[in-house]
Structure formats: structure tokens, C-alpha cells
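Design job #97: recover the sequence.
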């Protein structure tokens, strides 16, 4: 069974930074593609970023390219999302994803 636990969310002013972490259970973490999604109030969940098993390739939503960076540490079963130059429109609950599994989410609020 896979469990994903996110942390690192919070309240930040526009232009600030946050780093989200997601710790995954399971021995096969290092073989899995991992992703981050987000859901703002009244909106559907949307893709933010993903990273392949060894971190050699990653993908980003156009809205976060150049500002967010996804990375992973397979020795720690952890995937990260470094978020810089945050904007109020980045406010959402951020979810970690692996295949069909989701974390509980962590709230990110960016004030103007």
C-alpha cells in the first residue's frame, strides 16, 4: 500500500517562496514517476509538475514554468516542489501524486 504525506504549505506574500515535500511509503518509490497537482476553490484539480523515476526529466504546467522546480531524493522517498515568485493565483491545495494514489494535500495561500 502506498501512502503519500505532504508538508510545507503555508501563508506567504506575493513574490515569496515555499518548498513542499511529499514523503512516500513503499519500496518501489524510486521506480515511480511522481507528480504535483493543485486545486483552487471552485476549480478542478490541475497538473503542476511531474518528474521521472531518476529525476532526469520533468514536466511543468505553463503557468508555473520558470518559477517552480520539482526534484526528488530516492534515498529519502521524497519528492519536492520548490515554488518561487509566488502569485496570488497559485493559492490552492497542493497534492502529491503517484499513479492512482494521492496525498491529503497541503494548503498554499499567497497574499497580494
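Job complete. Output follows.
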Amino acid at each position: 500500500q502506498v501512502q503519500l504525506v505532504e508538508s510545507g504549505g503555508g501563508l506567504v506574500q506575493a513574490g515569496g517562496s515555499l518548498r513542499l515535500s511529499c514523503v512516500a511509503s513503499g519500496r518501489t518509490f524510486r521506480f515511480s514517476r511522481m507528480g504535483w497537482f493543485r486545486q483552487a476553490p471552485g476549480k478542478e484539480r490541475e497538473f503542476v509538475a511531474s518528474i521521472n523515476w531518476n529525476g532526469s526529466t520533468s514536466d511543468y504546467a505553463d503557468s508555473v514554468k520558470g518559477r517552480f522546480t520539482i526534484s526528488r531524493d530516492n534515498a529519502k522517498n521524497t519528492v519536492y516542489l520548490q515554488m518561487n515568485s509566488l502569485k496570488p493565483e497559485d493559492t490552492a491545495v497542493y497534492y502529491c501524486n503517484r499513479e492512482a494514489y494521492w496525498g491529503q494535500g497541503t494548503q498554499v495561500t499567497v497574499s497580494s
